[in-house]
Specification:
five-stranded mixed β-sheet, 335 residues, 11 helices, Peroxisomal Thiolase, Chain A, domain 1, EC 2.3.1.180, alpha/beta, binds acetyl coenzyme *A
């Protein structure tokens, strides 16, 4: 993103939603061979929310979106574009159109972005392009995931980490003086895709195909935890430093660091490498675990509601995850 911004982008409002069902580490340790102590010391997670059959991705995304719209006093029909960041859609062809219908945003174009835990950052950057080039005025960005549906609940290495949720942010075109989104940095390394994925299991051979025994399906989340950890703590600080440098900003000017809520040890290691004190870290990981594309907007909405963020605060937001993908957006809080 160029620093000579003529068309600004401002954050009008945020919203979030999580399922009612809460599973504590204690409940998990009654089901599988784990303990609250192991999970909490290795990840910082205490509990997570899980969507049961009657709570869908679309319902959570709609609740989060409607909260943001009500807060901004914007009607759904005023939305020009909806971007839904999710890797667990209701429909492989995409779920954004269902969200559009559910909230009655019938004038909006709607599409999905699939980029796992980086999805929300990439969606914000995409939305920003459409606003800056004058194509759209009101854009709704939602990050939502129900990874609980893709977890092997007998695999203690992965099932303790994830939870379900949704978060929304409403963006609007504004003058350059009111601009909230200062710059971004996005990266991908597809050579390491195998460290974190949900494999597609296709038809094995022609006979299989012709007998229609299999339509193809996906496996469970698999992860090389150590490699993902190393990737996150090396690449995320680099991304943040590059982004700050491109805007002539220094680490000392950063008021808040909001990272994808993957794991407390990753959050602390990134803050340490950047020399950012822990009180500047925003985290709600203990309550929700890793909610993938929802984690950043969920934590942002909570921080705003708690009144943490003040006028003029500089916000560094970074997502990272499967792909492998990672990215940073720098925001200035101007209401
Ligand atoms: N409960 C109890 N013991 C466990 C559990 C569990 N839930 N999971 C693994 N163990 C055991 C293992 O079996 C192993 O036992 P062994 O030594 O007898 O074989 C031991 O604990 C150590 O296992 P490791 O896999 O080496 O555990 P590690 O110290 O690497 O911690 C963790 C695992 C927390 C996942 C770590 O690798 C990590 O932080 N990785 C970062 C990845 C991450 O956060 N991913 C989130 C999703 S990706 C994203 O959002 C970007």
């Amino acid at each position: 993103m160029k620093s000579s911004i003529t068309q600004g982008v401002r954050i009008l409002a945020t919203g979030s939603a999580v399922p009612d069902w809460c599973i504590s580490n204690k409940i998990l340790s009654d089901l599988i061979d784990t303990s609250d102590e192991w999970i909490f010391t290795r990840t910082g997670i205490k509990e997570r929310r899980i969507a049961l059959g009657d709570t869908s991705l679309i319902q959570m995304a709609s609740l989060a979106a409607m909260q943001a719209l009500r807060q901004a006093s914007i009607s759904p029909v005023e939305i020009d574009l909806i971007i839904l960041a999710t890797s667990s859609p209701n429909d492989l062809f995409g779920s954004a159109s269902q969200l559009q219908a559910e909230i009655g945003a019938n004038k909006a174009v709607a599409f999905d972005i699939t980029a796992a835990c980086s999805g929300f950052v990439i969606a914000i950057v995409t939305a920003t392009q459409f606003i800056q080039n004058g194509s759209y005025r009101n854009v709704l960005v939602v990050g939502a995931d129900v990874l609980s549906k893709w977890i092997d609940w007998s695999d203690r290495r992965t099932c303790v980490l994830f939870g379900d949720g949704a978060g929304a942010i409403l963006l609007q075109a504004c003058s350059s003086i009111q601009n909230n989104i200062l710059g971004f940095q996005l990266d991908t390394n597809g050579e390491k895709f195998d460290h974190l994925n949900i494999h597609y299991n296709g038809n094995k051979d022609k006979a299989d195909f012709l007998s229609a025994k299999s339509n193809g399906n996906y496996g469970y989340i698999t992860m090389n935890g150590k490699e993902v950890y190393k990737f996150a703590v090396s690449k995320v600080p680099d991304s943040i430093m590059k982004c700050l440098a491109s805007l002539n900003l220094s680490i000392e000017e950063v008021n808040w660091l909001l990272l994808h809520q993957a794991n407390k040890r990753i959050l602390h290691a990134v803050a340490d490498r950047l020399n950012i004190p822990k009180y500047k870290l925003i985290s709600n990981l203990a309550k929700y675990g890793n909610t993938s594309a929802a984690s950043i907007p969920l934590a942002l909405d909570e921080a705003i509601n708690e009144g943490k963020i003040k006028q003029g605060d500089l916000f560094v937001v970074s997502g990272f995850g499967a792909g492998l993908t990672w990215g940073t957006v720098i925001l200035k809080w101007i209401c």
